[in-house]
Amino acid sequence: MPEQKPSPSPERAIYGFVLYLGSFLALVWAYVPDPWLESIGLTYLPQKYWAIAGPVFLCGMVAMVLCLYIGYSFLITAPLDSIHTIRDKHSRPVITSGLPDGAIKPIGDIDISEVNRQLYGDR
Amino acid sequence: MKDKCDTLDLCNNLQFKIINHCPYSCKEFVITQKFHFRKWLQTSIILNVLAFGIGLHKQDIVILLVALGLVLVILFFKLRSKVVKESLLVMASIGAQTTTTYALGKKCCQFYDLTSIRDIVINEGITMHSIIFYLVLLLRGSDAQTEPQILVPLFKHSWPPLRFLQHIYRESQAVIWKKRKTKDS
């Protein structure tokens, strides 16, 4: 997955500006009464019901996304009998041979048997 | 046949025992769930007093019989799945066997051949609300691969604490890899 940075960029500036203008238009539509809008000529606009329902939906979504995110985290946690608690497709073996003299050993995942021997075995 | 038993430790409701069937080559690790009679008696008395207080004995006899039948059925099913004792028997050059004993007397055994066992290790896992240490049997896959393929958690009804697991780890490693303790080590 490409790295995501929180810094500003031209695309994000454009998104921000569009949202800014859109929010102005939404506020205007929400507050101006229907007969005035029809007299201008804008007849095919969403019902004013959505001026309330939309924000309520968004706030409910925020709460629901919080619960769903936690639930999703629990779902993708590997169960206790899965081999993925020890290794998965991203784990690397430890390489000790085939290195030039004085080289720093590359990073690798130590085998769990070795870890146990160090932690819990006889000293 | 003389079994040398070491009652090693007592945790809140678990009793841990190591049985040396044969020194250095056969050991059994038994974890028993203890039944606290006093706590059960106290809870029963309190519930009975409460039931008497709210007038449960004045209800219609049919309702009480139905409730009693329901409670007995639930009790039966709960006892059927209640684990009383779990044991791991490790034998040098043969393998390992796990036995779970249920409250109604049922015993489930599972044997793992030594050729398919790669190691017995202590692994850390994430459950819903905590991180626990648990003993795991690493099994080889079907063909001779260097990496373990199957993970079998042991003592998965009792979940003994880490200090029991450390004892089991050291002793079962000695049995499986046949290390003999010399007098000066």
UniProtKB/TrEMBL annotation, chain A:
- Record's subcellular location: Membrane
Domain PIG-P: from-to ranges: 12-120
Is S-adenosyl-L-methionine found in the keyword set? no
The primary location reported for this protein is: membrane
Can you cite a GO biological process for this protein?
Answer: GPI anchor biosynthetic process
Keywords, A to Z? GPI-anchor biosynthesis, Membrane, Transferase, Transmembrane, Transmembrane helix
Q: Which Pfam families match?
A: PIG-P (PF08510)
Which pathway is this protein engaged in? Answer: Glycolipid biosynthesis; glycosylphosphatidylinositol-anchor biosynthesis
Recorded GO terms, molecular function?
phosphatidylinositol N-acetylglucosaminyltransferase activity
Top-rank taxon of the source lineage equals Eukaryota
Q: Which GO terms describe its cellular component?
A: endoplasmic reticulum; membrane
Family the UniProt entry places it in: Belongs to the PIGP family.
Query: Could you tell me what this protein does?
Result: Part of the complex catalyzing the transfer of N-acetylglucosamine from UDP-N-acetylglucosamine to phosphatidylinositol, the first step of GPI biosynthesis.
What this protein is called in its record is Phosphatidylinositol N-acetylglucosaminyltransferase subunit P
Task: Name its species.
Answer: Lingula anatina
Upper lineage is: Eukaryota, Metazoa, Spiralia, Lophotrochozoa, Brachiopoda
From TrEMBL, chain B:
**Which range is the signal sequence, renumbered to this chain?**
none
Has the keyword Transmembrane been applied to this entry?
yes
* Species for this entry: Lingula anatina (Brachiopod)
Q: Which InterPro entries match?
A: PIG-H, PIGH-H_dom
Q: Does the keyword Hydrolase apply?
A: no
Q: Which GO terms describe its molecular function?
A: glycosyltransferase activity
What this protein is called in its record is Phosphatidylinositol N-acetylglucosaminyltransferase subunit H
Keywords in alphabetical order, please. Glycosyltransferase, Membrane, Transferase, Transmembrane, Transmembrane helix
For this entry, list what GO says about its biological process.
GPI anchor biosynthetic process
According to its UniProt record, which protein family does this protein belong to? Belongs to the PIGH family.
Q: Cellular component terms, GO, for this chain's entry?
A: glycosylphosphatidylinositol-N-acetylglucosaminyltransferase (GPI-GnT) complex
Residue ranges constituting the Phosphatidylinositol N-acetylglucosaminyltransferase subunit H conserved domain according to the UniProt record = 87-155
Q: In which pathway does it act?
A: Glycolipid biosynthesis; glycosylphosphatidylinositol-anchor biosynthesis
Where are its TM segments located? 37-55, 61-79
Q: Name one Pfam family in it.
A: PIG-H
